[in-house]
């Protein structure tokens, strides 16, 4: 291989890498979904008042009581929110964020999801609320009923087609609910990346326009969640089954990829080679070619 051939090869490799990177980032930007809130519970030092909205939207969570942040890497990735009642008579009230999830607020639909880990010693008779936005079960809400081993939405109605789920206490599961935003407000539920049920909801207006995680309302209802939650996210659109599977496969990095964020460690770097790495490899080839050329030249 001549010196000119080596240089041509290196320049071609560099151009191909740059083009691949531009196309990949452009594709991610075009496919980006509107992320309304993201809660990872990192760098809070065990204090819930230090938890921030990692989406950059500034919708920071506010505790209503009975929720804290773990320490010692007890989350799916890093730390998590932990919901536990102070006493049996004082159930956890979860936390609120300034996100309006009422029907009609998001005409392009809505997706709410995250990872949940039910406490092994939790109340097996009650409903463990994942999210709600009102003081009534007649509005958008979702909880897991341990007595029936099924997810229920709005007015204690099981989602149509939902079998006894594979939820296992003490293990992490991804739960995602999508609302299509139409008049019938159909909700579809996914567990660990797989669709498990759907139902149609026609309810009255909400008592609150704030999204609440971990409890049905702020008064300490018996539908409080007992366990941990991590990497909670809210999108102002209906995610596709493929996007939900990506989140299931890649965790927080998958959420960032769907949102079109640049911090996608573990996703984009696997599909796009680093230009610097290829350039070093190219220089190695160049050095090898020069070395062979010198060896062939007569003394």
Count of spatially separate domains: 2
* SSE pattern: HEEEEEEEEEEEEEEEHHHH
Q: How many strands?
A: 15
CATH class of the largest domain: Mainly Beta
Q: Multimeric state of these chains?
A: single chain
Gross morphology: globular
What is the CA–CA distance across the termini?
A: 21 Å
- Number of contiguous helices: 5
Mean pLDDT: 75
Instruction: Briefly note the structural class of the backbone.
Output: alpha+beta
Tell me the CATH topology of the largest domain: Jelly Rolls
Helix coverage percent: 10-25%
Provide the gyration radius in Å.
Answer: 25 Å
Strand content: 25-35%
Can I get a quick summary?
With 299 residues, the chain is α+β, with helices and mostly antiparallel strands. It has helices at residues 3-30, 241-250, 252-259, 268-271, 275-296; strands at residues 35-39, 62-65, 67-69, 81-83, 94-97, 110-118, 127-132, 141-145, 150-153, 157-158, 173-179, 186-191, 194-200, 211-213, 227-235.
């Amino acid at each position: 291989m001549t010196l000119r051939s080596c240089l041509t090869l290196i320049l071609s490799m560099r151009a191909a890498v740059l083009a691949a990177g531009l196309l990949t980032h452009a594709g991610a930007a075009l496919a980006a979904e509107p992320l309304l809130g993201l809660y990872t519970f990192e760098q809070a030092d065990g204090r819930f008042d230090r938890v921030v909205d990692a989406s950059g939207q500034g919708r920071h969570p506010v505790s209503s009581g009975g929720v804290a942040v773990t320490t010692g890497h007890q989350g799916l990735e890093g730390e998590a929110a932990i919901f536990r009642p102070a006493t049996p008579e004082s159930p956890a009230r979860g936390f609120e964020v300034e996100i309006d999830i009422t029907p009609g607020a998001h005409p392009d639909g809505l997706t709410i999801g995250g990872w949940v880990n039910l406490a092994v010693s939790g109340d097996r008779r009650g409903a463990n609320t994942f999210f709600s936005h009102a003081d009534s079960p007649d509005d958008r809400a979702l909880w897991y009923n341990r007595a029936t081993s099924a997810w229920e939405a709005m007015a204690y109605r099981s989602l149509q087609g939902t079998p006894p789920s594979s939820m296992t206490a003490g293990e992490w599961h991804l739960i995602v609910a999508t609302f299509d935003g139409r008049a019938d407000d159909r909700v579809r539920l996914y567990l660990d990346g797989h669709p498990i049920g759907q139902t149609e909801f026609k309810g009255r207006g909400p008592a609150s326009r704030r999204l609440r995680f971990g409890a049905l309302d702020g008064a300490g209802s018996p539908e409080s969640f007992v366990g941990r939650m991590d990497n909670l996210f809210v999108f102002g659109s209906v995610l596709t089954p493929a996007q939900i599977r990506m989140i299931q496969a890649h965790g927080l990095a998958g959420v960032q990829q769907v949102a079109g964020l640049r911090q996608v460690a573990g996703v984009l770097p696997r599909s796009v080679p680093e230009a610097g790495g290829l350039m070093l490899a190219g220089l190695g080839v160049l050095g090898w070619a020069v070395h062979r050329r010198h060896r062939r030249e007569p003394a």
